[in-house]
Amino acid sequence: MDFNVLVRLDLGAEEELMGAGSRFNREAGITLGRPSVLDVARDQLPPEVTAARDFNRWTYLQLLFPFDLEEPEEGMSYLEAEFAVTLDGEAVGRRLSATRYDDRALGDLTAFGESQSAFRWRLRPQPEEPGLTDGSRVARVLLQVPAGVTALTGVITAAARLADPELGLEVAAATVEPQPFALRLTDGTYTPIMTGPDPAEIPTGGVRRLCVAVDVEAYSKRDTREHERLQDVLVKVIDQALAAALRPVRGCDTQEQGDGQLVILPAGIDEPSVIRWFLRELASGLAAENRPVQREYAVRIRIALDEDVVHPGRNGFAGHGVIRACRMRDSPVAKQALKEAAGHHVVIVSDAMYEGSVKRAFDGDAAWRFTKVSAVIEDKGFTAECWIHVP
């Protein structure tokens, strides 16, 4: 990837479930990079632009939007990919194009929206190509902006069609919701505006929230390249699980920890439903990532859940639920359980969490049985009755 990553967006579709609402199926993903703002000299402008009577009313800039199509699942291929930008205000696109960072085929490009404030780039495979290649591309637009305007706001969306030859199906996928952004034209400062609760509606004190603490087994025993791979897999499977459990993903807070991650889910969720989808998808995603690698290179994780009032702090999250989740995750009983497990993960939850939500989440599901254990970390003075799932 040849650009600074700003945000990763999931591409998928809602699937109706019999008698159980719907779920978001993630099919692919797109990574957005930091856009560039370039000045354009008058002699570089198209003749039809410089000949316009109102030419002096406008400023002309070249905007570059880098993006990267995620490699599709094995056996699948892109039939089409679409990247779209919609701007607020009077700015319009006068000429649209696209390029690649590497020497692979760009794809058959069709651009829509010249002289409009909403424009999109559609890519399809070349006639001789079986599918559209993944990888990094740059969507370019010659932008006409009212003189004196120093910032733009708008939204970015993306969509794709993929082929699944094994099932003989075409799969449509799109971003769950538009990605808002703000772009300062003076220095190119770009800010993705993350969706979430209105700050005015967030209580100034703590809020009761579900805490998920995750840690990778034997991380320190790996080399630097493996550290990078382990982190990539960890972030990917957690993001996929959140996308399946929360539709759309909003109001989540994360605290990266290198070999682990702390996720604070939004308040007011349907806990049994969210826990069920999150843990199932996390287990499924982890198994898929480990399938092509030898066992000694498998990513194996400990997952802990608890709930309590959480306060945002200057150096992380504060609250007893956060502490308990991390202590349970790092307890000898959880570490030993994962060491002896045939699978790639174990889940440990507090007694209150189990009785209040987890038991209902997996009621009647024999594959998700929990056993009562005691988690003890003597040097931390920590003892707790817990429930553990070892697949």
Strand content: 35-45%
Query: What is the C-alpha radius of gyration, as a whole number of Å?
Result: 24 Å
Span between N and C termini?
A: 36 Å
Using DSSP, what is the number of strands?
21
Helix content percent band: 10-25%
Fold and architecture overview:
The chain is an alpha+beta fold. The chain folds into 2 domains: 188 residues, Immunoglobulin-like; 189 residues, Alpha-Beta Plaits, CATH 3.30.70. It has 6 helices and 21 strands. The strands form 3 sheets. Strands 14, 15, 16, 17, 18, 19, 20 and 21 form an 8-stranded mixed beta sheet that branches. Strands 5, 7, 8, 10, 11, 12 and 13 form a 7-stranded antiparallel beta sheet that branches. Strand 15 and strand 16 form a beta hairpin. The longest helix has 22 residues. The relative contact order is 0.11. About 3% of the residues have low confidence.
What key phrases describe this protein's structure?
391 residues, alpha+beta, Immunoglobulin-like, Alpha-Beta Plaits, 2 domains, eight-stranded mixed beta sheet, seven-stranded antiparallel beta sheet, 6 helices, 21 strands, 19% helix, 43% strand, elongated
Give a brief description:
The protein has helices at 47-50, 224-245, 271-290, 320-329, 332-340, 351-361; strands at 5-16, 22-33, 36-39, 58-69, 77-87, 92-100, 108-112, 118-124, 135-146, 151-164, 169-174, 179-184, 190-192, 207-216, 253-256, 260-264, 301-313, 316-318, 345-350, 371-377, 382-389. By secondary structure, the chain is of the alpha+beta class.
